[in-house]
């Protein structure tokens, strides 16, 4: 079997050969992690993230004095130890046997990636709408997004579900995958997910006097800059290219969060569906800019959105395979 030779290759390979082996290990790790997550999704049962959340809360309680430097120090204490530990374990296992390093990659990816995190919610909402159980669909959407959904129509439920699914797919799949491929071992995947969590937890505050979370928000935005655009480009390639690019260029900046605007506008154009638009929530109208071109959102577009995300993820895996082949031939 081919993997029986991997340990010897990992020990004796140098230069381009070692780069090829690392790329191959990256591809194998991604495939196995995605397969494992499909077979046994963690969902909200991820105790590692619950532990990290408690740790982040502890740091905030003890270090938040409202200054930016305190936020930087807390961010470093939260991020660097687990990332460096994951990298140290990876190199120790790689020196012993590259197969052990692959298993470590798969474990960390399994804990950090989450394709089923959004696809299961998609399926629950889609099935409820198909069976005419609008109330169940509203409840499922409210649990998923944390927003009130009691007044939403079927079209509005579909719109919000697609929007949340696109953003979640980026955060739990594409952003994590990008940094895993770019940095050695599983350190990139862990770095991105921890930074993303702290960016949402600390960096989303609007209070001018609270500068504690400013660095966390900036770090998350910096890590998102390139993978957001690569994800949007993938949506364009795997969907309606011209409409996706047009919506990206003309509509993304109208959204409150520009990074999310890029993702949603390109996905809407690629799918040929209208997203955004006003919503009825809390007995009032919540005005939002229109994104996308084409048809009004309906339950059928939920399956189309999942298909777009899957095709884009397979495209990324194919690119990693091409990079491995190119390094081998160099």
Give your account of this protein's structure.
The protein has one domain (13-329). It contains 13 helices and five strands. It has helices spanning 6-12, 16-39, 47-63, 68-96, 98-112, 115-130, 134-145, 154-182, 187-201, 214-238, 241-251, 258-271, 300-329; strands spanning 273-276, 279-281, 284-286, 290-291, 295-296. Helix 8 crosses helix 9 (187-201), helix 8 (154-182) packs across helix 12 (258-271) and helix 8 (154-182) runs parallel beside helix 13. The chain is globular, with a radius of gyration of 21 Å.
Number of strands: 5
Q: Tally the helices: what do you get?
A: 13
The main β sheet shows up as: 3 strands, mixed
Report the uncertain regions: 1-14
Read across the widest sheet, the strand sequence of neighbours is: 4-1-5
The percentage of residues in β strands lies in: under 5%
Helix content: over 70%
Would you tell me the overall average pLDDT? 87
In short:
It is a multi-pass membrane protein. Belongs to the CobD/CbiB family. By secondary structure, the protein is mostly helical.
Question: Layout of helices and strands, plus pairs?
Answer:
Blueprint: H1 6-12, H2 16-39, H3 47-63, H4 68-96, H5 98-112, H6 115-130, H7 134-145, H8 154-182, H9 187-201, H10 214-238, H11 241-251, H12 258-271, E1 273-276, E2 279-281, E3 284-286, E4 290-291, E5 295-296, H13 300-329
Parallel strand pairs: 1-5
Antiparallel strand pairs: 1-4, 2-3
What tags apply to this protein structure?
single chain, 5 strands, 13 helices, mainly alpha, 330 residues
């Amino acid at each position: 079997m081919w993997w029986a030779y991997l340990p010897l290759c990992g020990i004796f390979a140098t230069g381009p050969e070692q780069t090829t082996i690392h790329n191959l290990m990256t591809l194998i790790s991604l495939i196995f992690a995605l397969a494992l997550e499909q077979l046994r999704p963690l969902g909200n049962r991820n105790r590692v993230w619950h532990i990290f959340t408690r740790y982040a809360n502890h740091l905030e309680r003890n270090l938040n004095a409202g200054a930016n430097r305190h936020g930087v120090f807390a961010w470093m204490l939260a991020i660097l130890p687990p990332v460096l530990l994951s990298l140290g374990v990876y190199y120790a296992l790689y020196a012993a046997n590259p197969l052990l390093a692959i298993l470590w990659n798969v474990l960390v990816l399994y804990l950090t990636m989450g394709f089923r995190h959004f696809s299961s919610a998609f399926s629950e909402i889609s099935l409820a709408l198909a069976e005419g159980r609008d109330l169940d669909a509203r409840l499922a959407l409210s649990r998923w997004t944390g927003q009130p959904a009691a007044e939403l129509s079927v079209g509005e439920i579909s719109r919000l579900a697609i929007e949340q699914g696109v953003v979640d797919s980026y955060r739990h799949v594409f952003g994590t995958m990008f940094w895993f491929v770019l940095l050695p071992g599983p350190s990139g995947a862990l770095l991105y997910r921890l930074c993303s969590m702290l960016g949402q937890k600390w960096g989303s505050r609007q209070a001018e006097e609270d500068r504690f979370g400013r660095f966390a928000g900036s770090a998350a935005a910096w890590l998102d800059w390139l993978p957001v655009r690569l994800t949007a480009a993938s949506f364009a390639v795997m969907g309606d290219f011209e409409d996706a690019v047009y919506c990206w260029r003309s509509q993304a900046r109208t959204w409150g969060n520009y990074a999310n605007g890029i993702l949603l506008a390109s996905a809407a154009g690629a799918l040929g569906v209208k997203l955004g638009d006003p919503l009825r929530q809390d007995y009032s109208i919540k005005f939002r800019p229109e994104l996308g071109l084409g048809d009004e959102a309906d339950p059928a577009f939920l399956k189309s959105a999942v298909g777009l995300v899957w095709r884009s993820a397979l495209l990324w895996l194919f690119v990693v395979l091409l990079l491995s082949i190119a390094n081998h031939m160099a």
